[in-house]
Amino acid sequence: MEVYRTDIAVVGAGSAGLSAAYQAAGAGAKVLVIDENRLPGGQLFKQIHKFFGSRAHRAGTRGYMIGRELLENVTASGAEVWLDSLVYGMQKDLSLGVIRNGKHIVVKADAVIVAAGAKENYMAFPGSTLPGVMGAGAAQTMINVNRVLPGERVLMLGSGNVGLIVSYQLMQAGAEVVALVEGAPKIGGYGVHAGKIRRAGVPIYLSHTIKSVTGNGRVEKVEIVGVDARWQQIPGTEKTFEADTVCLAVGLNPMTELLWMSGCEFCFIPAFGGHVPLHDASMETTVKGLYVAGDVTGVEEASSAMEEGNLAGIGAARALGFLSEEEAKRKLAETAERLRTLRSGMFGEGRRKAKEQQLEAMEQYRAGTAESMI
Amino acid sequence: MRIIQHPILEELDTSDKVTIYYNGQPVEALEGEPVAAALINAGISSFRTTARNHEPRGIFCAIGRCTDCMMIVDGIPNTRTCVTPVRDGMRVETQHGLGTFSVPSDGGKEDR
Amino acid sequence: MEGIIYTGVPSKEELSACPGIPSEERMNRGRVACIECVQEIPCNPCEGACRFGAITIGEEITRLPVLHEEKCTGCGVCVANCPGLAITVIDRSFSETEASIDFPFEYIPLPAEGDLVDAVSRGGEVLCKGRILKVKKSKAFAGTAVISMAVPKEYIDEVRSMKRLPRRTASDTAGKNGKETI
Question: Which of A21, A106, A196, C82 is most buried, by CB atoms within 10 Å?
Answer without folding.
Answer: A21
